[in-house]
Amino acid sequence: MNRLLILTLAPFIGIMVWLYSTTILMEISQPNLSPVPSVSINQQANDLLIDLNTAESHIQEIESSLSNLFDIYNKSADTANQLVNTASAQVDKPGIIYDNRIISKLGTPTKHIQSENIDLKLFNITEDTYKGYAVKIDLKTDDAMDMVLAKDELGKSETTLQAVQRTGAIAGINAGGFADDWRTGKRYPLSTTIVDGSYVTGFEASFKDLFFVGLDDEGKLIGGNFYNRADLDNLSPQFGATFVPILIQNQTKQSIPSKWLTSPKRAARTVIANYKNDHLLFIVTEGQDSIGKYGASLPELQDKLLELGVIDAYNLDGGGSTSLVINGSTINRPSDGKLRPLPTHFLFFK
């Protein structure tokens, strides 16, 4: 029984011994904490105020530094803008000088149309044997010039004035030659013709001195004889028409076919040309006038074009087809006594 009693009480005795020993260890290991000195509230407030004053002083120093930096930046920006403007003026100066030389040769414009799209100037031309007009055009955007089919349909015809009125253009000039189908009464553009970047009736290789002339997708004049489509496609034509002959290329007179020297020798003429700054020049001459002067010869126009400083020049359809319309008025006196209906027109938009 003693053994049984000991075995029964043993766990309880063990627990009591463990609790007693743990209490002793906790008392022994408890740290000896020293009292925290007390700080007055007034002292803490004074210290905080000193810190705030110091921070405010630093902020003022930073603001002053930033203000100085902004002043330096603004002065630098103004100086940079002045340098850019000066540089731009210097870059533009040769172009302005060149353009002024052109204008000085043409004289004083009688009409001037200017907008974000276009700068168009009309000049009178008076020579001993003919008179006419020069139209100098600076195409500022891709929307400033286009070539259209009459009534926007192949085989139709309309006067340049009608085309101008129909499209809302500010000016118009007759474009390429044409061929009539007497069976149907339709009037078709001559040979290779491109409108809105597409061939109207397909490509036709140059023959009998026919050329193609028009503008590329950058608004620059392109032209010449083309014997395969790839050569023309490589120039990215946007629009253009066909006629004969080429008058000037690379500031050099081109040979004029004998037929065009005599049939007719003098007539109303329409010419498209360009300058090295890509401005365009159109020459339109009158036919019979009140004192018997009758038109211009192509050699005379070659001389005039070189005098005016053009790079390339192409003879467009003339005679009764010659048409110049500006601001809704016909400028030239048509050889037929009235404007001739045509299949293609160069138009200009404000």
UniProtKB/TrEMBL annotation:
InterPro entries: NAGPA (IPR018711). Residues 168-349 form the Phosphodiester glycosidase domain. The keyword Hydrolase applies. This is Phosphodiester glycosidase family protein. The lineage of its organism: Bacteria, Bacillati, Bacillota, Bacilli, Bacillales. It comes from Chengkuizengella axinellae. Keywords: Glycosidase, Hydrolase. The keyword Hydrolase applies. One of its GO terms (molecular function) is hydrolase activity, acting on glycosyl bonds.
